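Protocol step 6 of 9: fold each sequence in the batch and record its structure tokens directly after the sequence line. For illustration, a two-sequence batch is reproduced in full.

Sequence one:
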Amino acid sequence: MKKLIMMCFMLVIAFVMVGCNSEENTHFNNKLIKEELNSYVNEIEKSLIIQNNFSYVNEIVNSIDNMELKKEDNEQIIENMKKQIDEIILNKDLEETIINDYQNSKYKEIYNNQLYENCRCYGLYNEAVVLFIPLEEQAEFTIVVESFEFYYPNFFTILVWYNSVFYSFEFNDDVKELLDNNILKIDDIENINKIHKKWSN
């Protein structure tokens, strides 16, 4: 009987130790993934004028903490998360292209402004870049796109750059063209709306 009790006791200890080791390995593995992702973010040559949403990037990287990952899944997880990061961060080369294209855009004349440091990148959707552009007029303003409301306490617009052409969320014809040509999808507009509401005004 004593032997049986002792065996059961040893089994319990063994299971506890395995569980602890598993938690430690998971924590260590997740830490390594986060370090690699943070290094990847740091290596990107980021835009110099248009703001990137780094709080959103941090959310993606820190979401690793809540995952139970097997070491063999690391490569796929890292690849998927790098793609998500690439869809958020505007790099320097693409920023230069967008700013140059804007000089010849009709919207530069319509809004009579430049792309400057208070502009924000709301993400990259396939090959389209969505930009929040604050304007000089001091007045509350709301843009409604496919039932999604974009509010800001000062006048603004949201422009989409795609293949050297700009589209504005203010104009229904532009929105229709974006959707009809699959440059953006309804799900994209919903995600852009969430980013707009979450980004601190």
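Sequence two, same batch, same settings:
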Amino acid sequence: MCYYITVAFPKTMANSILTSLPKGLHSLPVTSPAISKLLPRDYDSLAIITAMCSCDLYSPSKPGEKDREKEALQRKYKKKGWSENKIQRALDDHEKNMKTRLAGFRDDFLYWLSALSANSTGNLYIFVHFYGGDVETEELEIRRDKVTAEGLRSFLQGFPEDVLLEITN
């Protein structure tokens, strides 16, 4: 049970895709019929992974998560009898020092995808799914959407799951 990020591209780009992957990122061929049937015939697709999956590269957005955490800390500090000023300083320090896993894509993947889409000779496709079974055989309900390479940034902090996003030039 893991996230996988699938990137599809014209077969002529395969070499440049593989050689441009950032350090620590790897690829696996994707042959899922559910995805393949939605792509042009002359396209290949790869899952971009860190070890065995893409969980380190993508985090779903969880509405209100940051606010709930802040409220919990605030209650904890009030129980300790801290003053409002001390609580505010502690919350500010916590936010600065906290290692937050942002919703959306990890920075190195995001930079790579942005550069790839800006320099691509053809359209690219990206798909994110949380697989509960076999990556190649799991049935998928895939929606479709389109965005320009310049408009890609609007999707990156809240990228939708189960949407095959076509990135056009």
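Proceed to step 7 once all outputs are recorded. Observation for sequence two: The mean pLDDT is 85.
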